[in-house]
Specification:
14% strand; 2 domains; 13 strands; 538 residues; 9-stranded mixed sheet; two-stranded antiparallel sheet
Length: 538
């Protein structure tokens, strides 16, 4: 009996492992073989004039503004203006137009993007160097997790550019963009649509399409968290599939054609502690696609160019100075050497197109399978329990024989159903906990390694129950329901009398309940195999 159970369990495990391997793409990102080498460790901007403004040179006046958009809509914003050393406002109407200052419009990364919460340190620092900055609120009524239109966003941000150009004291022909993260997919569109824009500052620019960047970020976060190798199989299957419910068309937006069309100077900056962006790859593609690109890497800086200090997260001490030198030194700083400088970036793997999953490429199908399986697992016991209870009542009233599952089936069927559900719940919980650790840049071997082992052990328990159930069904030759008094496994049924009647309908219902439950559990096991719970190195 033991050998038979072990052999059947092993066969099921191998079948599930093979199913999981062929059901979708593997994940084998190509390593970076040739690394980018900054010319110098200093991030100082070549060609910058020594007498241009520096952060802290001016007091800053901050004003809340309202920016009109199309169709009567409007967004709020924060305008920050430098006040010169004499105490005169930079927007003095009597000022010489030749002394009008450059302006910068900030373009938000992913998220809600409220002006009062975003770019506070950077916008204030640049304003204190003599640059007028405008941080608009992000328009949110047409922006969601499922739907983002970067070309439409570019048209909305264009109103902020027009607003800043009309601010007294701003040189309307010296306005540029400061775009962070997701905003770096928007600002190149704006540059092409508005040739009057003079420059753009790209902070933590992905350059590659969103789907590629997402897969790269997930891979990097998981590696930093030290997850087991088997977890990585889920990356292309999650990122590459069509998301349930539709949407996310922006995931394949390609910004590189827009970069190739614009010829204004670009300052691209990255933090070496940013695990979400392909730092070296993005730099190489920028250098290939655009002219007059200056690149700086900041040591220990994160995605927002902040570093950990005893006082908390603050801008890298050289960042605002370098950006101000670059903006205020244009056009001389546009092509001044060194082109690439700063700390050494370390990108281990390339961001690449994400392969399409074979089976569950359509997320609606995946969700449908799981919901259907759970429905079957709920329906099956109801059918069995209802038929058994009805048979017992009929037996009491008329002497009819009741119906029940054949002996030896109830325990393994329950183990299979409960084990499949528990493994699925465990896998979802494990992914949620690992995601939190990864986003917080934390490591916990007990949770990351031990949790994965626990999920797989739960899966094995379900498989052993399936093996016991399969062997018993084979012994019964598929007759999973019977009428009469319930017997123990191995007990011979009594000889039926002429008066004994079989409730055929009840037997059919119990049989249907058994197979419905088994089918639902099997569907969950296949889904678990797809997500890697039954990998055997295949």
């Amino acid at each position: 009996m033991l050998f038979r159970t072990v052999a059947t369990s092993a066969a099921i495990l191998v079948a599930l492992a093979v199913t999981g391997a062929v059901a979708g793409p593997a994940w084998e990102p190509a390593p970076v073989t040739t690394h980018l080498r900054p010319a110098t460790g200093s991030t100082a901007i070549g060609g910058a004039a020594p007498d241009v403004g520096a952060p802290g040179d001016y007091e800053v006046r901050e004003s809340a503004v309202t920016i009109p958009l199309a169709d009567g809509l409007e967004v709020g914003g924060l305008l920050r203006e430098p006040i010169d050393a004499r105490g005169d406002a930079a927007d003095d109407p009597a000022a010489d137009p030749a002394e009008d200052r450059p302006g910068v419009v900030f373009v938000h990364g992913a998220g809600t993007g409220k002006a009062a919460e975003a770019f506070t340190l950077a916008a204030t620092a640049l304003a204190s160097a003599g640059i007028v900055t405008l941080v608009p609120d992000k328009r949110l009524d047409n922006y969601s997790v499922r739907h983002r239109d970067y070309e439409a966003m570019a048209r909305d941000y264009a109103y902020s550019v027009s607003f800043l150009r009309d601010v007294p004291g701003v040189d309307p022909d010296d306005v540029g963009l400061y775009a962070e993260s997701e905003g770096a997919w928007v600002s190149p569109v704006m540059m092409v649509n508005d040739p009057r824009l003079e420059f753009q500052i790209l902070v933590s620019a992905p350059v590659v399409p969103p789907r590629q960047q997402a897969a790269y970020a997930v891979d990097n976060y998981l590696r930093n968290t030290d997850v087991p190798g088997g977890v990585f199989r889920a990356i292309p299957r999650a990122v590459g599939m069509k998301v349930p419910g539709g949407g996310f068309e922006y995931a394949d937006f390609d910004v590189r054609p827009w970069l190739k069309e614009q010829d204004d100077p670009i300052l691209a900056v990255y933090g070496t502690n940013d695990a979400s962006m392909p730092l070296e790859q993005g730099t190489r593609e920028l250098l290939d696609d655009a002219d007059d690109v200056t690149v700086r890497f900041y040591d220990r800086a994160n995605h927002g160019m902040n570093v950990e200090t005893p006082e908390g997260l603050l801008l890298h001490p050289d960042f605002a100075r370098d950006v101000a030198d670059w903006v205020l030194g244009l056009p001389a700083t546009a092509s001044a050497p060194p082109q690439v400088a700063g700390a050494q970036p370390e990108q281990l793997y390339l961001a690449a197109p994400v392969p399409q999953p074979h089976w569950y490429g359509d997320g609606d199908w995946l969700v449908g399978v799981v919901i259907t399986a759970c429905g079957l697992l709920a329906l099956g016991p109801l059918l069995v329990g209802g038929a058994v209870l009805t048979g017992r009542l009929a037996r009491r009233r008329s002497g009819r024989q009741g119906v029940h599952l054949a002996p030896g089936l109830r325990a393994p069927l329950t183990g299979l159903a409960v084990g499949a559900v528990a493994t699925m719940v465990g896998l979802v919980a494990y992914v949620a906990v690992v995601a939190r650790l990864a986003l917080d840049y934390e490591k916990d071997a007990l949770v990351v390694q031990g949790g994965w082992i626990a999920v797989r052990l739960l899966g094995i328990v379900a498989v052993v129950a399936a093996a016991l159930l399969l062997n018993r069904v084979r012994d019964l030759r598929g007759r999973v329901a019977r009428s009469g008094v319930a017997l123990r496994q191995g007990q011979e049924p009594p000889v039926e009398t002429a008066r004994a009647r079989t409730s055929r309908a009840g037997v059919l219902v119990v049989s249907a309940g058994f197979w419905v439950t088994a089918l639902g559990a099997s569907a969950l096991l296949v889904t678990l195999a797809y997500w890697g719970a039954y990998q055997l190195g295949i």
